[in-house]
Structure formats: structure tokens, C-alpha cells
Inverse folding.
């Protein structure tokens, strides 16, 4: 979805400005999230599901381009917990698609501070800049809106296994990626400065 190519030289970088990338992780369980819904009077809806502990882990980045304030969404899914090496791979993925300087804003989780991430930060130190968000302030990260929306979209449904769950999460995320209006809504409802809105 983003722009490919290698990092431009210093002159172009200054002209391009910097991308902002708000990064966060989340998880989706086979046990469904249950929310209020409509049903005929006297017929309580029943949500049947297998009681298994399989899950899909996800990482994503809400991005804002430096010039026209275009928004984007990048994501990766896997069936195991995200580790430091997975976060490092996601950072490399972002840097392949976003030209110029990239400011990554995220929380201070342990997987964001490991050796693999430190190596990526050192290797791309001329264009990758990491800004930790304040502790206990998830409302500042628009990526939280992505996960809230995805979990609402998948609520009250029982998935057969992690493969089906992964396909459904991917479907919702692809829909979001094609909906800049929704992504802007997540930014607008965060506590971010007005210039991003």
C-alpha cells in the first residue's frame, strides 16, 4: 500500500518531511468477544464456540504522510505471540514502504526494547526515530482505535479454528486499510495534536 524504493538522499529527505507511524500490538482469541445485539423478543441469542486457547496475534501501524497528511495502515498477523524479532521485522517492513524519515510512536513494552529492535534502530538510525508514548496513555495511540474496531467487527461470532480466525481478522484489516475516513476517525478520537486531524 505504501511507497516502495530505497531511502532518498539528504536533499530529498528534507523535502519529503517525515512519516508518523503509530504502532501497537493486539490479540484475537477463538473465544469470541460478546457484545449487546438485537434479537426477537424472548429469544436470547446464543453464541456457540469451541473452548480452545488458540489465538491470532497482530501488530499494526497507523501512518500519516508528511505532505498531504495521507493516512495508511500496515499490519502483520501470526499465530504465536509477537517477540522482539517479529517487531524488528515489522519495523524493517515499514521502512521498506515509507520513504524519508519515519517517526515510530509506541508504548514502552519490553518487546520494543530488545536487542533485535536495537539493531534495527542502529542500522537505520539516519531515518528511523523512535518516540515512546507516555505510560498508561493508550488513548494517545490511534492504533488502539484499529483494534477496537476490529474486535467489534468480529464480536458475537464463533470461529472454528485459528486459520478461520486469521482469515476474518485479515478481512477486517484489509477493509480498514481501504477506508481512510475510518483511520482519520481513529486519529480524531485520540488525544493527538490538532495538526494531525
Amino acid at each position: 500500500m505504501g511507497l516502495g524504493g530505497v531511502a532518498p538522499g539528504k536533499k530529498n529527505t528534507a523535502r519529503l518531511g517525515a512519516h508518523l507511524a503509530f504502532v501497537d500490538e493486539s490479540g484475537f482469541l477463538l473465544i469470541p468477544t460478546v457484545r449487546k445485539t438485537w434479537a426477537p423478543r424472548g429469544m436470547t441469542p446464543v453464541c456457540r464456540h469451541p473452548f480452545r486457547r488458540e489465538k491470532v496475534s497482530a501488530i499494526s501501524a497507523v501512518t500519516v504522510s508528511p505532505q498531504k497528511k495521507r493516512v495508511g495502515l500496515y499490519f502483520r498477523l501470526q499465530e504465536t505471540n509477537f517477540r522482539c524479532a517479529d517487531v524488528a521485522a515489522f519495523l524493517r517492513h515499514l521502512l521498506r514502504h515509507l520513504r524519508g524519515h519515519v517517526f515510530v510512536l509506541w508504548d514502552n513494552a519490553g518487546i520494543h526494547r530488545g536487542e533485535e529492535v536495537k539493531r534495527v534502530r542502529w542500522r537505520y538510525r539516519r531515518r528511523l526515530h523512535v518516540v515512546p508514548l507516555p505510560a498508561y496513555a493508550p488513548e494517545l495511540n490511534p492504533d488502539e482505535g484499529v483494534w477496537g474496531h476490529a474486535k467489534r467487527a468480529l464480536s458475537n461470532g464463533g470461529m472454528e479454528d485459528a486459520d478461520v480466525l486469521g482469515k476474518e481478522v485479515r478481512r477486517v484489516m484489509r477493509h480498514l486499510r481501504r477506508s481512510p475516513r475510518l483511520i482519520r476517525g481513529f486519529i480524531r478520537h485520540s488525544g493527538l495534536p490538532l495538526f494531525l486531524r
Q: What stands out?
A: Confidence is low (pLDDT under 50) at residues 1-15. DSSP finds six helices and five strands in the chain. Residues 2 and 55 are 28 Å apart (CA to CA).
